[in-house]
Amino acid sequence: MSKRDYYEVLGLAKGASADEIKKAYRSKAKELHPDRNADNPKAEDQFKEANEAYEVLKDADKKAAYDRYGHAAFEGGMGSGGRAGGGMGPGQGDFASAFSDVFDDLFGDFMGGQRAGGRQRASRGADLRYNLRVTLEDAYQGMQKTIQVPTSVQCGSCSGSGAEGGAEPSTCPTCSGMGKVRATQGFFTVERTCPTCSGLGQTIKNPCKTCGGAGRVQKERALSVNIPKGVETGTRIRLAGEGEAGLRGGPPGDLYIFIEVAKHELFERDGVHLHCRVPVSMIVAALGGNIEVPTIDGGRSRVAIPNGSQSGRQMRLRAKGMPALRGAGQGDMFIELAVETPVNLTSKQKDLLREFEELSEDNNPESKSFFKSVKGFWDSMKG
User: Fold this and answer.
1) Fold entry, domain 119-159+213-262
2) What is the pTM (predicted TM-score) of this model?
């Protein structure tokens, strides 16, 4: 009986790409797996036929030879123009090697999504996150802060071994220390996590009474954290080895501190720059004058207000903003004037303002320009 064309076996057209070949083989392997075809006596032979086809077509050199010479490329005596893949016929390849590409697809859920591996005597501790809220002043100055972190630390009674008195754990009798056990699944032998030691490869005859065999205990630790100048909300600080202790003497995880800078009563932050809204009286805005404004370093700066200043006018104080994180330089501070209308006027003040208004026909250019435009608009509507 002549062999079927390898492309036909996998349901492909000649010239199929490597990805198409791999995808087709995965589909065929799942479809023809003997465990799924107990009622089909031909399934195992068809499965082997698909495996043989994939062994050839997945290899670029073998595929090129097959495309040129067909099955004769692997039957010997084909002359100097072809390659037989190192002298090994397509049916002689290692089946486990060919099927490794689809092994995870078929048994990923059964094995927890991981390939079988060696034992894991000790596991690394988990990384921890700590949210730290600081003031804008703290972010400006930088600081050393002590925080209390609840975490797992190495058990002092057993020195992290998990065994009473610090004794060494013994090899798991079920898996012989491998952390995995093998089970036959029809045509395959599958490894899974050892149920006795949970994959650790070791068991403890007399667990430590303090930690219950885990090798770590819960405890709150005080840590000193250096908050650099210029930190912003979202800045992350890593403290290596300050996370959760490892299981049974494994290395500890890391601690990640996430910074949140609280909103300030006076200043609004924009990167390295600060904004401050400063109210000024109508008189100062009109006549000009000097005012004092606060700065983030706790000081004050004297600012000259030009006469005729309007609400929303901004003025810059250079290098009065926030320091740049991990870099040189400092941002600026922007003052935004808010001209304040007086309230709770006395009768005399009202009379003075009315008199001032009568004399102010040419002192409000913006109002004059606006109402001139309004009159033009109304006139155009009438027309």
Assistant:
1) HSP40/DNAj peptide-binding domain (2.60.260)
2) 0.54
